[in-house]
Design brief:
alpha+beta; elongated
Length: 59
C-alpha cells in the first residue's frame, strides 16, 4: 500500500498535501467525500473509546 488518504480540512490545502507527501515520502490521495470520511473516523474513534471504557468500568 503506497497511497495514504488525506481527509478533513487539511485535504483542501494543496500546499499542506505537498508538504505531507514530501515528509512522508508517499503519494497522498484525496477522496471526494473527505468531510464525510473525517466525520466517520471521529465516530469510529468515539465508538472504540466508549467500548474500551465500558469494558473497564464495573457497574
Amino acid at each position: 500500500m503506497n497511497n495514504l488518504f488525506v481527509i478533513g480540512g487539511g485535504s483542501k490545502n494543496e500546499y499542506w498535501i505537498k508538504l505531507l507527501a514530501s515528509i512522508l515520502d508517499r503519494d497522498l490521495a484525496i477522496t471526494e467525500a473527505s468531510d464525510a470520511m473525517a466525520a466517520y473516523g471521529a465516530a469510529r474513534l468515539a465508538f472504540l473509546g466508549f467500548n474500551n471504557l465500558k469494558s473497564s468500568v464495573m457497574f
